[in-house]
Amino acid sequence: MLDDRKLEVLRAIVEDFVSTNEPVGSKALAERHNLGVSPATVRNDMAALEDEGFITHPHTSAGRIPTDRGYRLFVDRLSTVKPLSGAERRAIQTFLEGAADLDDVVRRTVRLLSQLTQQVAVVQYPSLSRSAVRHLEIVHLAPNRLLLVLITDTGRVEQRVVELPGTLDDDQVAQLRSAFGQRLHGARLVDVPAALSDLPDAAPQGIRPVLTSVMAVVLETLVEKPEERVAIGGTANLTRSALDFPRTLRPVLESLEEQVVLLKLIGEVNDPTTVHVKIGEENSVEGLRSTSVVTAGYGPDAAAYAGLGVVGPTRMDYPQAIGQVRAVARYVGDLLAGA
Amino acid sequence: MLDDRKLEVLRAIVEDFVSTNEPVGSKALAERHNLGVSPATVRNDMAALEDEGFITHPHTSAGRIPTDRGYRLFVDRLSTVKPLSGAERRAIQTFLEGAADLDDVVRRTVRLLSQLTQQVAVVQYPSLSRSAVRHLEIVHLAPNRLLLVLITDTGRVEQRVVELPGTLDDDQVAQLRSAFGQRLHGARLVDVPAALSDLPDAAPQGIRPVLTSVMAVVLETLVEKPEERVAIGGTANLTRSALDFPRTLRPVLESLEEQVVLLKLIGEVNDPTTVHVKIGEENSVEGLRSTSVVTAGYGPDAAAYAGLGVVGPTRMDYPQAIGQVRAVARYVGDLLAGA
DNA sequence: CTCTGGCACTCCGGTCTCCAGAGTGCCAAT
DNA sequence: ATTGGCACTCTGGAGACCGGAGTGCCAGAG
To answer: In this predicted structure, what is the pLDDT of residue A110?
Structure first.
C-alpha cells in the first residue's frame, strides 16, 4: 500500500512544510527533491497518502500539509535523530558549567533548552520519590515547633514546619535527631516507611507522642505527597510560531501555567532511557492538542531522577528537537550524578 | 488652560476607551456622559487636550485615545481608587488561607493577583536583606563540606554548600554552630557584618581558618549578593489584550522571563507604603514600553519585605488595578507578619 | 500495471474600487 | 464661550476581479 516512494514523498512533505510553513504542492516537491518522477506521479502518491490520513488539504486548491498521523509516521520511521552541531555541544557545556546549586542547574537547563530548541522548555526538579536522603536536619524553632530540613542526594532541599502536640527541650530534640538520622541516612525515599517502622517502639518513652507526630509529617512530606516541582521558560518562543497558533495561543499559555499539567506532560514517560514524542491530538492535555511535546528522562541511570522536554508547534523539526532534548538530558543527568 | 470641564472630558475619554478599546469621538462622548454641552464644545476641548499632549488621533478621522501623559494625569488627579467588591474580598481570603509555607504563599498570591486583575502578576519573595535571621543551621555533610541553612523571620529558607580548606570533626562543627548561632539569632541581615565582626578573635584557635571561610560564605550569601527571587504568572492574560499588543507581545514575554528585569520593575519602588504606577514610556524596561506596571510594597511595616504588582496594557482600569494590588499587598503583608 | 503529459476546474489571496459611517475642523451665529 | 452647520477626510468592510498554484482525472505510452 505504501511503497518506498510514497514514504519518500511523505518525508519530503514533512521536511518542506516544517521549514517553509507553507502547504507543499506536487510540482514544487518534484523539483526540489529529485525524486525522479513527474509531478503527476507525486500527485497520485499524495492522493494515496491522503486516503491513509497522513496528509490533508487546507483547501481544495492548496498544497498538502502533514496530519498528526503523518508526523507520527515521519518520527517513527522516516527520520533519524540529528546529531548536535559543535556549537550546540559547546553551548550546552558553557551554559551548564559553574552552576551553583540545584536550583541553578534547573534554571540554567530551562534557559539552555529553550534557546537551543527555540521552543518552550520544561524541566522537572529531580523527583523526591526517586531520590535518597543525604541528611535530615531537625531545627528547634520554638518549644513546640520544629523545622524539618531534608537534603537529598540530588541536592534538593525540602523544608517543613511541624507543630507539636507538646513541648520539647533541646535534649529531646537531639534524641529525635539521632533517631531519625540513623535510620534515614542514605535511604531511598521509597524505603523510608520501612526504615522508620520500628521507630516508635525503639524510642525512649518520653518523646513517643512527639515522635509520632514528627514521623507523620516526615512520611507525608517524603512519601505520601512529595512535592514535585517544575520550571518552565521560553514562552516567548510561542509567538514566533504565531502563525501556527492562530488564536490558540491562549489555552497553550494557560495549560503551561498549571503545574499539574506540566507534571502530567513529563510524568507520562514510562521508559526513561529514550526520548518520547507526543504529537498534537495524541496529547492528553486538552489545551495542548495543537502542540507537540518532546520529553526525556534524565538521571544517572535507568531509575531516572525526573523528566525534561520542550513544547512547540506540531510543525516542529523533530529530528533536531529529539537530538537536542536527548543531549541535554544526558548532560544534566551526568552533571547531577557527578555532583 | 485646563479648566474643570476639559479634565472631565479627559476622564470620560479614558474611561470610555478603557472599557471599549475604541477611539472615542465627540458625539458619543457628549451623549454617554451627560456633560451638558454639545459635541462641538467637546471637540474644542479635545483639540486643547491634544495640544497639551494628553490625547491623540490614530487617524485624521477617528476618535481620540489617551496618551501615556493622559493616563498619567488621569491616575494622578482624575481617579479615585476603586474599593474592592465583596466577592473580591472573599476571593483574597479563600485564596490565601491555608497556605503552608512561604513558597506556597507566593505561588498563591501570584495566582490570586493574576485572576483578580486579569493581568500578569509578579510577586517578589521577601527580600533577604530586609529580613532577620530566625535560625542558622550548620549541617556537616562530609568532613570537608558544610551545608548552611538559613531561615528568616519571613519563612524563607536559603541554603548554601561550603567547601572547607581543611576537615572538621563533629565537635568543631558544634563550636561553629554555637558561635554563629549566638551572634546571628534575631539579627537583621543588614546587621550581620557587625554582629560577626568580633568572631575571628573570639573563636578558639583551632577552627579559625575554617571559621573564616564559613564566614565569607555567610556574608556573601546574606549580604553581598543575596539572591532575590520573583514569581510570575498569568501570562495567558496578555493574549486577551492581543489587540493592545499588535505584534509587541514578543518583547513583553521576553522581558517577563528575565529575573533581573522583574526585580528592577518591582525594586524601583522607593516608598513602600503606596501603590506605584508606571505608564508606558515611563517604564525603564525597554520591552515593557507598551505596558503599564502597578506595584506595591508588602510587609508588616514601612520597612517592606518586598514588592508585588501587575503588568498589563496601558489601556488598563487603573482605579481598579490599584485597589486590587493594594489590597493584596496589605493582606499578604499581614499574613506574613502574623506567621 | 505504472507513469506521464495535458487539461479543465477550483479556490485562495492580493488588489482595486466603492461607499457608508464616524469623526474632525472651521466658521458664522447666538 | 458655546453651538449648529457644513465640507472634508479617513477607515473599514463589501464586492468584483484576476493571476497563480494546485488539484483530479483521463487517455496514452512504456
So the answer is: 96
CB pairs under 8 A between A and B: 63
Residue B182 contacts residue B170 (beta carbons within 8 Å): no
Per-residue pLDDT, A240: 78
The sign of the torsion formed by the CA atoms of B230, B234, B239, B244 equals: negative
Measure, in angstroms, how far nucleotide D1 C1' is from residue B17 CA.
28
* pLDDT band for position A243 (cuts 50, 70, 90): low
Domain boundaries, chain A: 4-76, 86-127+228-337, 129-224
- The integer distance in angstroms from the CA atom of A335 to the C1' atom of D22 is 52
User: Which nt is closest to the CA of A59, judged by C1'?
Assistant: C11
The C-alpha of A1 sits at a distance from chain B's nearest C-alpha, in angstroms, of 45
Which nucleotide lies nearest residue A38, CA to C1'?
Answer: C4
**A279 vs A75: CA distance, rounded Å:** 10
- As assigned by CATH, the class of the A129-224 domain is alpha beta
The residue whose CA lies nearest the C1' of nucleotide D1 is B41
Which of 3.30.450.40, 3.10.20.600, 3.40.50.2000, 3.30.365.10 would CATH assign to domain B86-127+228-337?
A: 3.30.450.40
* pLDDT, tens digit (0-9, with 9 covering 90-100), for A163-216: 888 888 888 888 888 888 888 888 888 888 888 888 777 777 777 777 888 888
Pick the more confident residue, B164 or A283: A283
pLDDT of res. B246 = 52
Q: At what angle do helices B102-117 and B86-96 cross, to 10 degrees?
A: 160
Q: A107: pLDDT confidence band, cut at 50, 70 and 90?
A: very high
pLDDT above 90 (res B150): no
Report the distance separating Cα B204 and Cα B171, nearest Å: 12
Ramachandran region of residue A36, left (φ > 0), alpha (ψ -120 to 50) or beta?
left
The CATH architecture one would assign to domain A4-76 is: Orthogonal Bundle (1.10)
- In A143-282 the beta strands, taken as DSSP E runs, fall at 145-152, 157-163, 230-233, 275-279
User: Strand pairing partners for B278?
Assistant: B293
The CA distances from residue A168 to A148, A206, A225, B324, in Å, are 15, 10, 27, 43
Chain A residues with CB under 8 Å of B257 CB are: 233-236
**What are the tens digits of pLDDT across the range B77-107?**
999 999 999 999 999 999 998 887 788 899 9
> Is B101 in contact with A236 (Cβ distance < 8 A)?
no
pLDDT of the residue at A255: 94
Cα–Cα distances (Å) from B160 to A50, A86, A135, in that order, read 59, 34, 14
Q: Cα distance from A236 to chain B (closest Cα, Å)?
A: 5
Same fold, B4-76 and B129-224: no
Mutate to test the interface with B, among A253, A255, A259 (most CBs of B within 10 A): A253
A56 touches strand D (CB under 7 A): no
Contact A250 B239 (CB under 8 A): yes
pTM listed for this prediction: 0.88
